[in-house]
UniProtKB/TrEMBL annotation:
One Pfam family of this chain: BTAD
Chain ranges of the Bacterial transcriptional activator domain: 115-253
Residues covered by region (Disordered): 1-21
Descriptive protein name: SARP family transcriptional regulator
InterPro entries cross-referenced by the UniProt entry: AfsR-DnrI-RedD_regulator, BTAD, TPR-like_helical_dom_sf, WH-like_DNA-bd_sf
Superkingdom field: Bacteria
């Protein structure tokens, strides 16, 4: 009799985890903070053209050949762009046979590919929709919240638009995670994530508000007041505005 792999509730797969408890991810693609591709844990060195194709499919999902070719090679004719795409697909499959799927005119990543930007989307959605209440589940995703921007140094339009979207999403997720961690009596981790939010966007009032709440929760009123002063001075110096009512409503005095 073949034994069944049983996943207990506390082991239930989470879309932002790097692998399932019952099997590792066949292929993992990390785009946050830089490009890294791993095949069952082994890092794979791909040429830039192959990296671009896999990153595009990771960010945009299954796409027509013409859409992919036109986005990756907008400066050449459609015939040449499609030829470039065929070459890239061949090279990737030669190195990673399961990395891509094709069906007619559709190209997509392999079904078992884990992508960190997609995982960040899933984690942020759980936080922002208030469906994530399990601290252990949140701790699984700390690496995603601490990761850098999407593909830094890549200036293609299909990257820059998504980079800004994910940047804003990450900031919102960082601030929401602070509240979850404070309720779970995890002030040290909450403080780290609040500082990450402030570092990522020093002019963001809501990031400072999250940081001030952590200090107040720990009883560090003096530090909360200091951060309020830092934020107030920064807003006045850089933008010529005073803190909003939402920030001044925090009980720091």
């Amino acid at each position: 009799m073949t034994a069944l792999s049983i996943i207990t509730p506390d082991q239930e797969p989470r879309p932002w985890a790097t692998s399932r408890p019952d099997r590792p991810a066949a292929l993992s693609l990390c785009l946050l903070g830089g490009y890294t591709c791993r095949d069952r844990g082994r890092e794979v060195d791909l040429p830039l053209g192959a990296q671009q194709l896999m990153a595009f499919l990771a960010l945009h999902g299954p796409s027509t050949r013409s859409a992919v070719a036109g986005s990756l090679w907008p400066e050449v004719t459609e015939v040449r762009a499609l030829a470039n795409l065929r070459t890239r697909v061949w090279r990737i499959r030669k190195c990673l046979p399961r990395a891509l799927r094709t069906h007619g005119q559709i190209v997509a990543l392999g079904a078992e590919t884990w992508v960190d930007s997609q995982a960040l989307d899933a984690l942020a959605a759980s936080l922002l929709h208030h469906t994530l209440t399990d601290t252990a589940a949140l701790l699984d995703g700390l690496g995603l919240l601490r990761a850098g921007d999407l593909l830094p140094g890549w200036d293609d339009e299909w990257v820059t638009l998504e980079r800004e979207r994910l940047r804003q999403l990450r900031l919102q997720a960082l601030e929401s995670s602070v509240q979850v961690l404070l309720r779970a009596q995890e002030p040290d981790v909450a403080l780290d994530l609040a500082l990450q939010a402030v570092k990522a966007e020093p002019l963001r009032e809501s990031a400072y508000a999250a940081l001030i709440r952590v200090h107040l929760a720990e009883g560090n009123v003096a530090e909360a007041r200091r951060q309020f002063g830092v934020c107030s001075a920064l807003l006045q110096r850089e933008l010529g505005v005073a803190p909003s009512d939402r920030l001044t409503a925090l009980d720091v005095w």
